[in-house]
Design a protein that fits this description.
globular; nine-stranded mixed beta sheet; alpha+beta; three-stranded mixed beta sheet; 12 strands; 3 helices; 31% strand; 227 residues; single chain
Length: 227
């Protein structure tokens, strides 16, 4: 995807790209759009791109201006993906997923469910139970280590975000999983428009997980979900 990207392929012919350095958001969008166009016209294979961004906020197609509570803290980019505001930054693994959804049945709902299942299976590698909640985008964990909420419920924190876009039935954008980002940076937005729940990470949960550990788990669990 970029000159410094390490490339491997899996048994399905999908290229896996890993960028060792920080990748700017405009650079990533340009590279993704180029790759999606080539996948659509049959001149490039499908691809998964693992990277980190500098600290920034992105606004999805449903983003509400009021949810950007600190607009001067970091750069803000229009993402043109589904969803609302999200934060990206060092310590968060961004996974851009460029797959041919047309070839995979043209079922967008099922494709999003596969992304969710992939994240949950990856978290399970580290004995973290990720869950989906009706009306809340992303993957959540129940915090057994925190006091009950005012309504007597166990608190839940978001650990992964999901947002995709399709062009000619090829997906781009994808998922982000919090490994060890600065969680205070999420306070500049209302993440995904949800105010009553928090944000967590693998390290915040007390797990000494590295980015490399997560990358290995993502690769191992991918084939269980996508064919």
């Amino acid at each position: 995807m970029t000159p410094e990207t390490l490339i491997t392929s899996d048994h399905n012919g999908i290229e896996w790209h890993l960028s060792a350095g920080i990748v700017t958001y405009p650079e990533a969008i340009t590279a993704m759009e180029d790759r999606v166009a080539r996948i659509a016209n049959g001149t490039a294979p499908e691809a998964i791109w693992l990277l980190e961004h500098p600290a920034l906020y992105t606004a999805g197609t449903s983003a509400k201006p009021a949810d950007l509570t600190d607009p001067d803290r970091f750069p803000v980019f229009e993402a043109r993906r589904g969803g609302q505001y999200t934060y990206h930054g060092p310590g968060q693994r961004v996974v851009y997923v460029m797959l041919d959804v047309g070839r995979r049945g043209r079922d967008v709902r099922r494709f999003v469910q596969q992304l969710e299942t992939w994240v949950i299976a990856t978290l399970d590698t580290f004995n973290v139970k990720g869950e989906i909640r009706e009306g809340r985008v992303g993957v959540w964990v129940t915090r057994e280590d925190k006091p009950l909420t005012a309504t007597g419920q166990k608190p839940e924190d978001k650990i992964a975000a999901i947002g995709i876009r399709l062009r000619k039935w090829v997906s781009f954008h994808g998922i982000s999983i919090n490994v060890e980002p600065n969680l205070e940076h999420f306070t500049g937005i209302v993440p995904c428009g949800i105010t009553e729940h928090g944000v967590t990470s693998l390290v915040d949960l007390g797990l000494p997980v590295t980015m490399t550990d997560l990358d290995i788990a993502l690769r191992d669990t991918f084939s269980r979900t996508f064919v």
